[in-house]
Design a protein that fits this description.
Number of domains: 3
Structural class: alpha/beta
Distance between the termini: 39 Å
Number of helices: 15
Helix content: 40-55%
CATH architecture of the largest domain: 3-Layer(aba) Sandwich
Strand content: 5-15%
Shape: globular
CATH topology of the largest domain: Rossmann fold
Order of helices and strands: HEHEHHEHHEHEHEHEHEHEHEHEEHH
């Protein structure tokens, strides 16, 4: 049987991605599900849960409600909770059971907004896709709903798009990405969606370029490009050489108005390294390795834009496919989450880089921050 994960786990679900993207924005996120989605998200996918509150709820869908199509329960419960909590907005998203019974989330959101007077938007998750899809839809929904026309355009203003703990689990990552931008004489306008408020995000159109640090931010970047003419650059500042390369790409995008995908750069000589992970962050690692004398490529088992990967990369996502691709690549090193060790080819050295969206909080104590030259130090230490 194909596409069965016998050994490795699956990535966090799209509903977890949506909840993560909205976590700090002061809204109320309601996952329509019987039970389980909320506890899984809080226990495994969301490290902020322990020290920062968020209005993330489950609808407690019962078997009888599902059979009878009792949508009034979630509408009434959400309205009652909103009257008590007074959120800035309400987001309603789904899980496998609502998908199976055909719940109309657009209608649910309309009814809830009519009843509460609070802006409500539907997120069409179903638990059958991975986290970037839910996070992507949520960030675009925020951009469409709240970003205002520019009132103070900044020549070197930058929005950071796609920042969540699912890909950037180290607590210092946001601060250090901001610091890197400021050191390169950019001004951070907003960050979708860690460390900023809705008010800050509403001013995103004042930026001159968008830095897309994960696929989760791409759809919002495309909306801002279409609506306000802001170009975007896809890449995360990982490694000294690639961070410099990325800073130059941001400057070029401001001047030319053209989008760029530095994360797709690859080297073609030296020891073979395969990176497994999310398109932009893992792609940026592969690009850094390519710039520093390695023959690097990437396996991206998650949703991605074709421009984010090189022709040498693979989009294998099933366990059996990944085994075959790794055997064909014959890498000397593999940079991947510790749980991938069970399917790596014999002889390949595993450089373990934990990924919250894959192994949850199993390795959160050893999650490194790889911003700028910190990656070079980490690689030197771990590859000994």
């Amino acid at each position: 049987m194909k596409h069965v994960a016998k050994i490795i786990p699956c990535y966090a679900a799209d509903s977890a991605g949506a909840c993560s993207a909205l976590y700090e924005l002061g809204g109320m996120t309601v996952v329509h599900d019987a039970s389980g989605c909320n506890s899984t998200f809080a226990t495994f996918d969301e490290p902020r849960w322990w020290d920062k509150q968020s209005m993330t709820y489950i609808s407690a869908l019962t078997e009888l409600d599902a059979i009878l199509g009792n949508d009034e329960k979630i509408i009434a419960d959400t309205a009652a909770a909103a009257a008590d909590q007074k959120p800035a907005f309400i987001a309603v998203c789904g899980s496998p059971m609502p998908m199976m019974i055909g719940v109309d989330f657009d209608a649910l959101a309309f009814e809830i907004e009519q009843r509460t007077g609070i802006r409500t938007f539907p997120l069409h998750t179903n638990g059958m896709h991975s986290y970037p899809e839910g996070a992507s839809e949520a960030m675009r929904a925020i951009a469409e709903a709240y970003v205002q026309p520019p009132d103070n355009k900044l020549a070197n203003g930058v929005n950071i798009l796609g920042m969540t703990p699912l890909d950037f689990g180290n607590a210092n990552a946001v601060k250090n990405v901001r610091g890197w931008l400021e050191n390169n004489e950019f001004t951070v306008v907003s960050c979708f969606a860690m460390g900023d408020t809705l008010d800050a995000l509403s001013k995103a159109a004042n930026a001159s370029v968008n830095l897309v640090v994960s696929y989760s931010g791409l759809s919002a970047a495309q909306y801002l490009a279409e609506q306000f003419g802001i170009p975007y650059v896809c890449g995360a500042p990982i490694g000294g050489a690639f961070s410099d390369f990325l800073a130059d790409a941001l400057r070029n995008a401001i001047e030319s108005g053209e989008n760029a995908y530095p994360c797709a750069f690859r080297g073609s000589s030296g020891k073979k390294v395969t990176v497994i992970g999310e398109a932009v962050s893992a792609g940026s690692i592969a690009a850094q390795l390519g710039l520093t004398g390695f023959h690097a490529n990437m396996i991206c088992p998650l949703p991605h834009d074709e421009n984010m990967r090189n022709s040498f990369d693979s989009d294998a996502f099933a366990e059996d496919e990944m085994r075959a691709v790794l055997a064909e690549m014959q890498p000397d090193f593999v940079i991947a989450d510790p749980l991938y060790r069970f399917i790596l080819p014999q002889g390949a050295k595993h450089l373990e880089l934990a990924h919250i969206a894959f192994s949850g909080r199993c390795y959160d104590k050893i999650l490194p921050d790889l911003t700028d030259a910190r990656f070079d130090a980490w690689l030197e230490q771990i590859a000994k």
